[in-house]
Amino acid sequence: MLALGKLLELTLAGHEPSAKIQLTPDGTRLRWLDEGALEVTPPAARDNGLDLLLSAGIHGNETAPIELLDRLLRGIARNELHPAARILFLFGNPEAMRRGERYVEQDLNRLFSGRHEQSSGFEAIRACDLEHLAANFFGKDTGRTRLHYDLHTAIRGSKIEQFALYPWQEGRAHSRSELERLRAAGIEAVLLQNKASITFSAYTYAQLGAEAFTLELGKARAFGQNELVNLDLLESALHALIEGREVGEDSTLDGMQLFSVSREVIKHSDSFQLHVPADIENFTELEPGYLLAEDIADTRWIVEEQGARIIFPNPKVKNGLRAAILIVPDDGAGLA
Ligand SMILES: O=C(O)CCC(=O)N[C@@H](CCC(=O)O)C(=O)O
Ligand SMILES: [Zn+2]
After folding, report:
1. At which positions is Zn(2+) bound (predicted)?
2. ipTM value
3. What class is the 3-243 domain?
């Protein structure tokens, strides 16, 4: 296998390859760009016009998606997968991956869309670098199709195992056909965002015009312990996307659950208290009247919404960041 196919090994070792460009026997070019960043270019005759950004390891302890990208890249480097798409592989936070931690100093996925400019330190520099890598990859050619999947696993168990978060931009409708493709890839639910955000997928969606999703694929575990995370459907769908075969051509949204954000619970102070059991699962329903959280100055979050569910409850986030999301069912009427 070509040495650049071992991007994960190189990244975990903090090693810069001596040969930055390699060609597979079928003419696919691999180019190492930076730590954890590798561009794949198909031969011109096979290029189908799709620019596909695949990222994982934005949170360093979310290893199942990192292992998935490693398998895809090794398949290309072994000449087993024959790309028709241009692809940018990104391992988001190499230092956190080496430590097996979500982040080193601060959550990288809260530093995009320029937020890194108001901060400093390791993750702020990396967010800036990742924005440049993504912007250069998509370039100025608007005739091509831009797609970004930012792959994650969640801190806790979930009543719905695999789901997507779909970013938001003023005046832009969420795409039904993109959701159908995700359905065929095993994604069971989608959370339609309704305001701007500072995550990586929100950046590529709103600033770079890509179709972009955060995919949550199961529970975060250490390297080599991901046998409970079944990525078979997603992996087949990614093989098809990479090779330019249709994904979910005959797919429908049948069985896919749609939600929208009702409220984000923001932690404002060290007095913040979240009143849910430590082992609560994502998508657990909360009844109207439930006292969800309390914070300084008598701030109280009481559930008012019918059919409300909670995702990503985390009272340990830094002040100013979201400590949970309350979501409600969505009828999909706004899809285009
Ligand atoms: O399990 C959790 O509490 C967090 C899982 C996670 O990392 N989720 C992403 C979602 C990003 C998005 O909102 O698009 C995150 O919190 O960064
Ligand atoms: Zn994550």
Report:
1. 59, 62, 152
2. 0.96
3. alpha beta
